[in-house]
Amino acid sequence: MELSALLPILLGIAWLLPLASFTLIVLFGPRMGKHGVGASYLATSAIAIGALCSWFSLFCWFGHYGFKPAEHGAGSQFAAADHAEALTPALSQGEKETATDHESYPRAYTNDLYTLGQFGSLKITISYYIDALTVGMFAMVTLIATCIHFYAIGYMHDELHDVTDHEVTLSDGHHLHRPGRFHRFFQYLSLFCFSMLGLVYAGNIAMVFVFWELVGICSYFLIGFYIERKSASNAANKAFIVNRVGDFGMIIGLMALWGGLGTFAFGDVTDADGKVERGIFSQVRDPANGYALAAPDGMVRSAAFDAVEEIAFEHPGRLMPGAAASEINSRIPSWRADHYGYWLLVIAGVGIFCGCVGKSAQFPLHVWLPDAMEGPTPVSALVHSATMVAAGVYLVGRFLPVFAPEVLLVIAYTGCITLFIAATIAITATDIKRVLAYSTVSQLGYMMLALGVGGWVAGLFHLITHAFFKSLLFMCSGSVIHATHTNEMTKMGGLRKKMPVTAYTMLVGCLAIIGAGIPFLIGFSGYYSKDAIVAQALSFSLANPLHGAVFFYAAVGGAAMTAFYMFRLWYMTFAGPPRDHHIYDHAHESPKIMYRPLIVLAVFAALVGCTVPDWFPALGGLGVQNLLEQARPAGELGEGVLMAGLAYPEEHASHAHSIHVQATVYAFSTALGGFLLATVFYGLRWLNPADVKQQFFPVYNFLLNKWYFDELYDFLFVKPAHFVAFLITFVDRRLIDGFIDNLARWARKLAHFDDLIDRYFVDGLVNLTAAWTYSLGSSLRSLQTGRLRQYVMLIVIGLVALSVLINFASAR
Amino acid sequence: MEPVGISHFMTVGAIMFVCGVVCMATKRNALGVLMGIELVLNGANVNFVALSSDFLTTNPARGLGLDGQFIALFVIVLAAAEAAVALAITLNFYNNHSTVDVDRADELKG
Amino acid sequence: MAEFFAQHMPEWLAYLLAALIHCALLIQVVAVGALVFIWLERKVAGRIQDRLGPTRVGGKFGWLQTLADGLKLITKEDLMPEGADGLLFRLAPYISFCASFCAYIALPFSDGWVAVQLNAGVFFILAVMGLEVFGVILAGYSSASKWSLFGGMREAAQVVSYEVPLGMCVVVPVLIAGTMDLVEIGRMQQGWFTNWLIFHDPFTFITFWVYFTCATASVNRAPFDLAEAESELVAGFHTEYSGLRWSFFFMAEYGSMFAVSGLAAILFFGGWNGPLPIADWLGLTHANHPVLGYLGNFLGMLNFVFKCCLWVTFMIWVRWTLPRLRIDQVMKTCLKYCTPIAAVMFLGAVAWTYLFPGGVTGLGTPYGDRYLVEVKAPAAEESPATEQAGPEEKTAARQPASRQPAVKRSAAGATVARADHQKMFAEGDR
Amino acid sequence: MNWHTFFFLLFALVACGFAVMVVLSSNIVRMALYLIFSLGATAGLFFLAGADFVGAMQLMIYVGGTLVLLVFGVMLTAQGPFVSMKTRGGDWILAALLSGSLLAFLVPAAFSIKEWTNAPPAAAEEHHAAAGRGRAEAKVRFALTSTPAENADAAADESSTAALPGMAAQPATATRLGMGLLGVRVDKLEGRSPELQRGMSGYLLPFEIVSVHLLVVLVGAAYLARSKRRATR
Questions:
Q1: Do A792 and B108 touch (CB under 8 A)?
Q2: CB contact (8 A) between residue B110 and residue A782
Q3: A765 at interface of B, judged by CB pairs closer than 8 A
């Protein structure tokens, strides 16, 4: 089977199976086995089969394209464009494959599966866009989701029977007692998997948006899983509303894109009659123009609408005669040279990035993610660390060809700020899950930063490695919480003796996230991805000293902070003597079904970053980085138009030895510093953190209160909103209601009058009729004699009469 | 008289029909009424069958064809059903009133 | 025959004469049959009860005993009860007898030896035999005796009930043959005895026994002779009858026995065809010479009569073996056993003919496909060749090549195209 | 006067005569008997009209089933006063008037259409031409052969000589009725007239409905006639 036909089917199956599982659980969930336990099996098997399909398609991809990216032509600047040149014609021809030319392998498959509707030029379709990134994402998401499903079977077993929620106190003083919601949890998980995979599978931005919102609603459901808890429902609302803010920007971006380009599709889609509809990518970066970023014609035309109208007036006649159109077209290049339309492109990019900011919890919309930890831990592991929050990063990666350098700079700054703020907060947090949540935010900032400085592979590579180790960390923390029934690290300690598997898998996760490894030789997955980011930041700072230095130091400092808070976490939880003996005595290792996925994920977290060396037989070059390299968008990122002097270096430049070594040394040494600091404070307990706390009391408080973001937002947005609502309530209650009440009073009086008419006049008439009918009926009643024979006689008389009539009628 | 045609059959049918009607109208015995109904149905059947015949008319194409016989068959079958139910009703009536006089069955008169 | 007469005399006289000859011949069957069977019954009863039965009249076997009885009955006084409804009382035995006798009109004794080859022969026989019950009912009513009335009522209930399974049983061979023409059904079973419909499939085999039970019940033979249950009702419906009228009832009963046996023989046992096609081997066919054909037919008639007698004897045997059933048992037998079994057999036979249109054993010639013959548009052109063709041609006609008609219809419809209502008066003798 | 006419007259007379006697008789049992004769003769009329299957049905279901049932009912209720319930004179007069007027319309109506009287067209040529179309000849002859061979011969040239004109045009009906009840109108294929060939609508659905109807009636009748005393006991 052709790869072009196979991949959509395999990935489509992986995508749709969770939907089937969701539907079945919605319909029959409570009846699946005892207390709906079958729902978990259904959901797990659905995503497991999906994982098989995804991995199979990954193997197919490797089998077809090899492990390494396509050869680059002699390090030329246009090397990428070179192979991308082959890419886009292949795209435009759908799935044409010319095996003769090595360079012309299609790197992406896109096509419409089903047209939902066509409104003029607006075509809403279900389509797919599959390249190496898609395949890699599928493999990652389904694998982690499968592990988490298994894990959740164990973690959520409390929900199999009636639950008494000790965190909810009812008005009568009792704790809430409710039936278990086991099946519902898996129902949401399935829906989430479907949505997430659909988001990755999607071939157009409209479909992306739909699934974007779907993952949002799933997140909402899952955060609010313990809906009775005030904090949980608040957190769910917060997540949803904050995301709306970002999505608003995203809609603006979508509109700008569609208004300018007239399409939602990513790649060029060939429809049934061979007509090629050019997608966003090829319109923004025209293959004929060497994949250079340029404002497309549509954007230029709409930006220069003054001039367009002028030309239209000059050519009398209706509806833009051909002469006017050709005139306009002929002047488009000159307008473009004047940067008409470039702003539109920037707006589109920033708008789309807004959506990503919301979803990926970037500054200033990062506030929802820590609160989202109210959801069950498997949810945190799957949704709020590994997949959904990474969707924003994924989308930025996917749209990188569309982003102008200015947009990228915005992205980089956003990521940079996020990275720093989140890392600082994570240092002081004591809730184990919150630490991880801020860590997640911080790492997402890393990714954004990487993408913003042009490190396409670096950012997405970190996305994938982070997904593994962060989900691992979350699941380990879940295991700890499961064992201790508390989130507070201050009550833990020494748990590694009680739960070794959890402790050491978590250690693997910590090592992975801080990027531990033997420099220049081998390391955990984070070692590779973080190195790549730091290297790219360094490379960028060489090209743009002004911005670049900020980014580089943020990245390096972030590495140090990461190492510190992660090992702070690990030491506080697992090392040293126990702080709370009651909790310690009751702690126990989690069941097999929970710690086995941990082991699987630990293996992946450790190894996923490695690239098999080239000299290794058969598997040489196997690695995520090379896989992502195959999906790298064509064309250079270029230079800023609005901001002169903003230049983006090729990502390959960061592989240069000088940069690479420098970056590795920086990253490793800072991480080591952070690690040592944490060891001194928490592992060996040579220094007392409380002293430091007192010394830096204002800073500590500032960080403990999360930079007062929630208070700030409360003051800026929530309070004014409450005030406006109060005003509106006043108007509603006093003015409008009063008016309506008076109206009603009048209507009542009128109705009373009407009632009199009704009762005496209308009813009188009706009663009179009824009385007449009644008397008529009783007088006619005597005709009904009950004599059968009489009836027969009458029938016969009627028959004869009828015959007579007919006879006369026909005689006439 | 010769040749025999549909008209003759229909005359027979008419006579049976009228006899049946008179039977229904005059008999006080419920079963007599029932017999009258049977006669009426048979009179109709004679007509149907005659009209379905090919050689009782100079223009068979305008006849009913086999459809007439189909209808006759259905009439026969339904008459059987009707007789069964009518008999059951009559017996019930007889059980309850100890008579089969239809003139006595006038409890629902106005 | 009528044609032969018509050459010498006016047409109406010829047909009248032919009809009378038929009547005379058929009445012989009933009358002589009754004579023989009554004698047979007494002999069999005697043997079963370990006695000799009649021995004196007419030599060693007492075979003239019935005749002597008949003479006695004729000479008896014809009594009528005082409160009786005279007209009905007198009429009842004749109705019974006529109904029984009428059945013979459509009963073929040999290939073509039938008074009227009716298109719906099976149906006709069943219908007419059903009329016999009127005689019994009227006799029961008009006798002004409660025994008689009870007998008549029982008879009415029993006959009406048993007509249902009887009709369903008869439908099974009709379904396989695809025609209701008894002559056609008989012809289909020619050849070896494996061609007999009773051996067609397991369902017909069972159907036959159900048919036989129901037939026994519908002719009021023991163990179903509730209408004349001596031990309860004195003599049932004919309590008040005497003399010749009484003997008419008996003639009717034996006539009916013979008729249902004949029907059984035709529907299930190959009719006039012997177990082996001896007549064919001897060349006794019309194809060779009319006279030879006549001889063959005569042989067939002997076959047929032998089979009928066999089943009548069987009925007699049953009568003297089994005790009489109670009325509720009778109804139960009918409604709870015979009817469902017959229904299942019917469905089974349908399924069988559908699944094995060519038969399964290979022993018998498959004849179920006889009714799968192509329609020929105008009815007048329907050649009776199929019907009249020799066995070889029939086989040829059954070849698969001829089985491709778009619309299928009964060959019976084709073959009996000429067997018209007018033939009721026609000579069937060849 | 031929046999057909003769038998028609015979059956018609029996049917009508006994029908009238049903009306005139006041004894319910006699009425039943007369009804039997009347309906039996009607069956004969059906045979004469070429509807042999319907005739057999009439005998079997009507006479053999329905009327037995009726007689059964008569005998169940035929106690003293109900055997003969006299009709009042006024009723008779009224009934006679009505029946007379009804007949006065029906009989002329029966003869109102020329072709129904089956009278041959005036010219003899037309008479023969009509015979070719399958019209019944007034004179009915019988196909009588003594051997199958002759029979075959006679049948072979049946269409040309029209030895049995009426019958040839109207073949036996049982199979075609059966097929029609199963929904296949083979009779319409037989070229009666192009007008009639239009449509192949059969009677499968009515047949099924009637079957179910009969079942319902069976159950209903059993329910109505069941012994209620037993239930209270």
A1: no
A2: yes
A3: no
The predicted structure's pLDDT at residue A17:
92
**CA neighbours closer than 13 Å in the CB half-sphere of residue A168:** 15
- A433 phi and psi angles, rounded to 5 deg: -75, -30
Identify the band that residue A181 occupies on the pLDDT scale cut at 50, 70 and 90.
confident
pLDDT 10s digits, C274-317: 777 777 777 777 777 777 777 888 888 888 888 888 888 888 88
pLDDT for residue C57 is more than 80: no
Give partners of B (≥3 CB pairs < 8 A).
Answer: A, D
Does A801 touch chain D if contact means CB atoms closer than 8 Å?
Answer: no
Owning domain of residue C385: 372-425
All CATH 1.20.120.1200 domain ranges of chain D, comma separated, are: 1-77
Q: Are chains A and C in contact at 3+ CB pairs closer than 8 Å? A: no
Cβ of A788 within 8 Å of Cβ of B102? The answer is yes
- DSSP category for residue A262: S
Token reading at A734 = 């006093």
Distance (Å) from the C-alpha of residue C98 to the closest C-alpha of chain D? 13
What is the C-alpha separation between B72 and B53, in angstroms, rounded?
12
HEC sequence for C251-303: HHHHHHHHHHHHHHHHHHCCCCCCCCCHHHHHCCCCCCCHHHHHHHHHHHHHH
Residue D170 near residue B59, CB atoms below 8 Å = no
> Looking at residue C368, what is its pLDDT?
42
Question: C406 CB near a chain D CB, below 8 Å?
Answer: no
**What are the pLDDT digits (tens) for A497-518?**
888 888 889 999 999 888 888 8
> What are C187-238's pLDDT values in tens digits?
777 777 777 888 777 888 889 999 999 888 888 887 887 777 777 777 777 7
- With an 8 Å Cβ cutoff, are B110 and A792 in contact? no
Looking at the structure of chain C, the number of domains it has is 3
Which value, to the nearest 10 degrees, does the dihedral of the CA atoms of residues B58, B62, B65, B70 take? -120
Q: Verify that C248 and C212 share a domain, yes or no.
A: yes
pLDDT of residue A728: 92
Looking at beta carbons, which residues of chain C come within 8 Å of D169?
A: 379-380
**How does residue C93 score in pLDDT terms, banded at 50, 70 and 90?**
confident
Domain count along chain A: 1
Q: Is D149 on the interface with B (CB under 8 A)?
A: no
- Among A795, A797, A800, pick the best mutation site for testing chain D contact (most D Cβ within 10 A): A800
Q: Is residue D52 within 8 angstroms of chain C, CB to CB? A: yes
Q: Give the CA count within 13 Å in the CB-facing half-sphere of C330.
A: 27
Q: Are residues C270 and C225 in the same domain?
A: yes
The CA distance from C119 to A473, in Å, is: 92
Domain of residue A762: give its range.
Answer: 712-770
Q: Is A406 within 8 Å of A639 (Cβ atoms)?
A: no
State pTM to two decimals: 0.51
Per-residue confidence at A183, pLDDT binned at 50, 70, 90?
confident
Q: What is the CATH number of domain B6-101?
A: 1.10.287.3510
Binned at pLDDT 50, 70 and 90, residue C359 comes out as low
A97-104, long-range: CB < 8 A, 24+ apart: A97/A2, A97/A4, A102/A70, A102/A71, A103/A70
CATH pick for D1-77 out of 1.20.120.1200, 3.30.530.20, 3.40.50.150, 3.90.870.10:
1.20.120.1200
Instruction: Say whether B1 and D5 touch across the interface (CB within 8 A).
Output: yes
ipTM: 0.67
Q: With beta carbons under 8 A apart, name residues in chain D contacting A793.
A: 94-95, 98
Looking at residue C416, what is its pLDDT?
35
Q: Are residues C196 and C330 in the same domain?
A: yes
Domain check: are C344 and C387 in the same one?
Answer: no
Of A789, A793, A800, the CB nearest to D101: A800
Residue A775 at interface with chain D, using a CB cutoff of 8 Å: no
- A783 — contact with chain B (CB < 8 Å)? yes
Give me the percent of chain A exceeding a pLDDT of 70.
94
Q: Is B29 on the interface with A (CB under 8 A)?
A: no
Six-digit token string for D154: 């006679």
